Amino acid sequence: MFTGIVEETGRVEAFKSARDAWRLVIAAEVVLGNTRLGDSIAVNGCCLTVAELEAGRLHFDVLEETRRLTNFASLGTGAPVNLERSLSFGGKVGGHFVTGHIDTTGTVAILEARGKDHYLRVRVPSGPMRYVVPKGSIAIDGISLTVAEVAAEEFAVWLIPHTMAATNLRARRPGEPVNLEFDLLAKHVEKLLAGRPA
User: Fold this and answer.
1) Does position 175 have pLDDT exceeding 70, yes or no?
2) Which of 113, 114, 122 is nearest to 140 (CA)?
């Protein structure tokens, strides 16, 4: 479980097909603190298990399905990725509960400065948009954000300067994919209501 508060932006050093899985190697600093083999780290919001640790680097095994269902297929050497260690009991919950299980990818439609803030509009396949509500929470590449606008197949958020400085959104361009995780409570409520007698 994560909070969607990015701790640092790491850098992809390698992402190659290995014998049993894809091997993702990320250069990092902050999230290496107290991290052990087998720990969970959110990479662009996707929960991955640390398979190997070395000085300044984290290694992950990535399933083909994970690569297919996330924006990992577009990760190249040098790409910035958002990193967050899993939530520890007694720690702060500054964002919202994020599982690290990506629901779908969206596409950056607009990312531009508007005054001192930045405006991000994301295009999404229409089906999952039922989980997106104004003032609700959404995780974009693992970043906990508040939805400002909702349309049929798009939603928008406003980004403060800190978010632009501390996350990989500063490197995003229109047309690029972003990982999306919708609010867990909305998905549970939908399932409960679907099973209720009419």
Assistant:
1) yes
2) 122
